[in-house]
Amino acid sequence: MRPLHRPEQLKLLPYVGKWLVIASLIALLAGSISAFFLLSLDQATAWREAHRWVIWLLPVAGFGVGWIYHRLGKTVDGGNNLIIDEIHEPKKVIPLRMAPLVLGGTIISHLFGASVGREGTAVQMGATLADQLTHAFRMKPEERRILLMAGMSAGFAAVFGTPLAGAVFVLEVLAIGRMRYDALFPCFVAGVVADQVCLAWGVRHTHYAIGAVVPIGFWSVLAVVAAGIVFGLVGMLFATGAHSLSAVVKRFIAYPPLRPFVGGIVVASAVYLLDAYHYIGLGIPDIVRAFQEPVAPWDFFGKLVFTIVSLGTGFKGGEVTPLFYIGATLGNALAPLLHLPFPLLAGIGFVAVFSGAANTPIATTLMAMELFGADIGPLAAIGCITAYLLSGHTGIYHAQRVGRSKYRGSIPEGLRISDLARLRKEEQRAPTKEKKETSESKTSDSP
């Protein structure tokens, strides 16, 4: 007699139940600490804005954070890149100290006036807390990957109030052109529950109003494609600039705590001399203003430079909210040239520059719909995908892998973005080296 086989659906029920419980627990932890973080950040920002003189203490604050990381946080200094590497190649549980270190470092950075974001902090805290459950639930390496991804989703969703984008962002950010569906259910549960937990603690996210969306037509599509090209190039400029400055600073300043100290001097001096207080911190008021009225056309560049200097010299935080600022103000500036309403193009720029810098067009399209309404979806998708393509194989997360090339080429799959950049530099040096060797050969052969 042939044995009876259980239907596949019955076999999946334990999986669904297991990850429903685990993802909800992760969301409770990540949502709660993200709420504490956001409320603390509001207090720090309000105090800094009421005491502008505190910007002169930024170098000291930077040195203090750098020294603490140098003494206690060497193993977790990789931040988001460490988490991405652990998902791709699980080795050991992320030390719990990552959560308090990045939390304190980010609040101090904002309190004294660095231009940094907040997503990196929430993602790192969520993933770190999630990873502490590895031993408790006896997770296998493959399950640990899902655990980390659920923690990242919970942190991202809670800090921005975008549960769908938070889940898809993590599925998409690990490898360019390739998504992981094995973590789909845990990531969505973690994102949705973490958002609700954060709201339950009294956090209120900023509302952005874009008004009416222009109809889909030949000109509106063409105009958004043109804007998307610019958004992608600016996203590439941001990512390349931050990585390049970080490499230069590390080369010339050997002692890590001195890097943010020097960066703090540069930022504080520039803020005072240029009266550029609106370019530090998160810049939420300026982002809101970009949806309401025309802003200075150079605002996006000012925020870009201040953020590159802050992150490139070692201040803690994230890149995403500054990218929102850069994208919204750039879209506002481009709107008159492309004959589109500035709230609409500010909204598309808000997500599209982030899409180009992080290589996450699907997540950012969902984010636009969650923040601005479903009507913006088609145009936001065009802007985000165009920016994604035009940013090339660069990105703010150098541990991100190349899953599939953006265009037909010979880029090997599985390469880290940082390895790809190094290969390109070696290829550029190769022709010069060959010319030199040929020249030397001709010289030696000549009578």
From TrEMBL:
Keywords: Membrane, Transmembrane, Transmembrane helix. Residues 422-447 are annotated as: Disordered. One of its GO terms (molecular function) is chloride transmembrane transporter activity. Gene3D superfamilies: Clc chloride channel. The keyword Membrane applies. It is a multi-pass membrane protein. The chain crosses the membrane at residues 20-41, 53-70, 146-171, 183-204, 216-239, 260-280, 300-325, 337-358, 378-399. It is found in: Membrane. It comes from the Bacteria. InterPro entries: Cl-channel_core, ClC, ClC-type_chloride_channel. One of its GO terms (cellular component) is membrane. This is Voltage-gated chloride channel protein. It comes from Chromobacterium rhizoryzae.
